[in-house]
Amino acid sequence: MQSPEQQLRKADGRESLKWISAVLAASLLWMALYSNLEWFAALSLQVAGITRANRFREALFFFIYEVPKVLLLLTAVVFVMGVVHTFISAERTRALLSGKRTGVGNIMAAALGIVTPFCSCSAVPLFIGFLQAGVPLGVTFSFLISAPMINEVALALLFGMFGWKVALLYSGMGLAVAIIAGIVIGKLKMERFLEEWVQKLQEKSVSPEMEVEVMSTPFRIQEGVRHVREIVGKVWLYIVLGVGLGAGIHGYVPENFMAALMGKSVWWSVPVAVLIGVPMYSNAAGILPVVQALLGKGAALGTVMAFMMSVIALSAPEMIILRKVLKPQLIAVFAGVVAAGIVGVGYVFNLVL
Description:
The protein has helices spanning 4-34, 37-47, 55-84, 90-97, 104-115, 123-132, 137-149, 152-162, 164-187, 196-203, 217-252, 255-262, 269-277, 284-296, 301-313, 316-322, 328-352. Residues 206-212 have low confidence and may be disordered. The chain is mainly α and 353 residues long.
C-alpha cells in the first residue's frame, strides 16, 4: 500500500513525463518545419504561379522565407530562456551584484545581462532596484547596456542567420562595450546626476535576499510556454514589418548604392549608421531581417552591426524612460560613451571580417 506522499510523487512524475514528451514532440515538429522553409517558400510561389524573375518576386520570396524562419528561431529561443529564467530572478541578480567592486562587478553585470529577461525599457525599473540595493552606478550601467544589446534572442538569430563566428564576435564586442562603458561612467563619479528621488532611494539602501523556490518541471515548461505567448505575441508585428522592409531592400535597392553608402571604403559610414539607428525603435527580432538584407546588398558587416547595436541599445523610448531617473547630463554621458563604443565595434568588425 503506497503512502499519500508516494502517490503524490508518482503523480508528479507522470505529469512531468507528459510535459517532457510534449516538448520533445514539439521539438521534432520545429526541426521538420525549420529544415524545409526554403522548399515551402519556393512551393508557395509555384502554387501561386509566380516565378523569381523580377525584383518584386525576389522580394516576395525573401518575405515568405524569412518571416517563418525568424518566428521559429524566436519561439525556440524564447521558450528555452523562459525555462532558464525560472532559475533567475531580479532579487538574485541584485544579490549577486551588491557590494562588488569596479571591474569585477562590471564583468558580472554585463554577463548577467545576457541571460536575464529584460529589454532596454523593462531593464530601467531593475536599474532603480540595483541602485537601491547598493550596486555601484557604473556596475548598474554595465547591466543596463548588455541586457538589451546581447540578449539571447539577438545571439540566437545572429547564429541562425550568419553563423557562430559573427554571433561570437558580436557577443564579445558587445560585452566589451558594456564593461568598458560601465567602468568609465563609474570612474566619472556621476551619482550627483541621478534624479533626487533616486538619490534618496540610495540613502535607504536595502540588502536584497536571495529567495529559494523549488519549482516543478511542468511549471518550468509552462513558464517557457508563457514566455513564448507574451514575447512572441508582442514582437511578431515588428518581425513582419522588419522582414517587409528587408524584403524591399533585398528586391529593390541596388547593390552598388548600399556598397557606396555603407561599404568598408566609406570611413564615415559607421558613425552615420549609429546616428541613424539612435532615433529608431526595434528589437533584435525586428531589426535582424533588415540587417540581413543590407548585407546582401553589399553593406559592410561592421557598419550594419553598429547600426543594429545603436537601434537596440540606444533607442529613443529607452532615453525617454531613463529621463525619469537620470538628469540630462548623465543621459548624455551614457549615450555618448555607448555610441563611441559601438562605433569602435563597427570598425573592428570591418577590419577582421
